[in-house]
Amino acid sequence: MNIKLIEDKVIEILKQHDLTLYEIVTEKMGKEKILSIVIDAVMEHKELEQLHMEVLDSINDDMDDDYFLQLSTVGIERPLKTLDEVRNQIGSYVYIESDIFIGDATLNDVVDDLLTISFFIKGRPKKIEIKYQNIKFIRQAVKF
Questions:
Q1: What is the pLDDT of residue 123?
Q2: Does domain 3-73 have CATH number 3.30.300.70?
Q3: Residue 55: what pLDDT?
Q4: The pLDDT value given to residue 30
Q5: How many CB atoms within 10 Å of residue 66?
Q6: Fewer CB in 10 Å around end: N or C, the chain?
Q7: From CA 55, how far away is CA 73, in angstroms rounded?
Q8: Each residue of 47-57: b (16+ CB within 10 Å) or e?
Q9: What CA dihedral angle connects 39, 26, 97 and 42, to 10 degrees?
Q10: Contact present, 25 and 36 (Cβ < 8 Å)
C-alpha cells in the first residue's frame, strides 16, 4: 500500500473542503488492520460521514484489501506536535507532562523555547517556566 499516494489524494480532497490533514497512520486493533486518517477539524457526524465516503471512493483501489478505513478528527484535546503549535495556544489551557510538572495549566507565554505556565496548587496560584525540550507531551485541554 502506497501511503504517500493515498496521502496526496486525501490532501487534495481536504483542500476542496478547506480542511487540513493531521496524520495518516496504519494500526492494528485486535486482528483488524486499520488505515487511520485524522483531519484537523471540528465537524458534525453527518459531515464526517460524507467526507469519509468521498475519501473512500478516491483511495479504495489504493488500499490493501485487508485494511479498513477510519476517518476521524483530532478532537478538542489535540496534541501539540511543534513549538509553533504550542505558541499558537498562548492564553489557552493545556495539559503538560514534563520532568518538573504533570497536569493542566494555562500557557501564559513562550519566549524562544521557554514556556511560562500558571496553575493552582491547593488554591494557591503558581507560575513556572519549562523548556520546550523537557516536555514529554503537551496537548490542548478543556478547563472545567
A1: 87
A2: yes
A3: 95
A4: 85
A5: 9
A6: C
A7: 14
A8: eeeebeebbee
A9: 20
A10: yes
Q: Give residue 8's pLDDT.
A: 95
Low-confidence ranges of the chain (pLDDT < 70): 144
Given this model, what pLDDT does residue 57 score? 94
Global pTM?
A: 0.67
Q: Assign a CATH topology to domain 83-140.
A: SH3 type barrels. (2.30.30)
CA gap 84, 96 in Å, rounded: 16
* Mean pLDDT over each residue of the chain, to the nearest integer: 92
Q: Which three cell numbers stand for residue 90?
A: 498562548
Task: Determine the length of the chain.
Answer: 144
The domain limits of the chain are: 3-73, 83-140
DSSP one-letter code for 79: B
| Residue type at 133 in one-letter notation | Q
Per the structure block, which three cell numbers stand in for 16?
A: 476542496
pLDDT at 84 (0 to 100)? 94
Q: How far is CA 107 from the centre of its chain?
A: 18
